User: Fold this.
Amino acid sequence: MAMRKAADNRLSAASVYNSAVPGNRPLKESSMNFVSIRIITDDIQRLVGFYEHITGIPVTMYTEEFGELATPACTLAIGSTRTLQLFGGDVARAADNHTAIIEFRVADVDAEYKKLAQVIDASLVQPPTTMPWGNRSLLFRDPDGNLVNFFTPVTPAAISKFDR
Assistant:
């Protein structure tokens, strides 16, 4: 009976937490939750410094080879290429991403652009532009060439999607 109650409490806590996260439906005990993405880099200090500068959020370094930038919604993990040995060797290549976009929701994308213009000038892909799905997006590349999007929902539909 005690084990059943503990399981019920975990499920209840997970349902309350996950229903409070925008866009989430209550999780079942066997469901998964996307919590982080990891970038592999040849120069961890350079990438850590870049992400700390553009976000204003300190990266917690757990070792010289691995750190995490935690936000309320998700974590950006940054690992050195030396950490790949822990995963069996050559399973990823630094600075070779051509498919993923690392996205940060910001309160005012135009203000962020003004603040970071000199930092991202050489890597600017697109100045703040309102996208068809209702977000105003600023696209640039980090020092390893990964595409980064700072965005602000601006249409009523986009705002309500993120405010759920």
About this structure: The first strand starts at residue 36 and ends at 41. Helices lie at 2-20, 44-55, 109-120, 156-163.
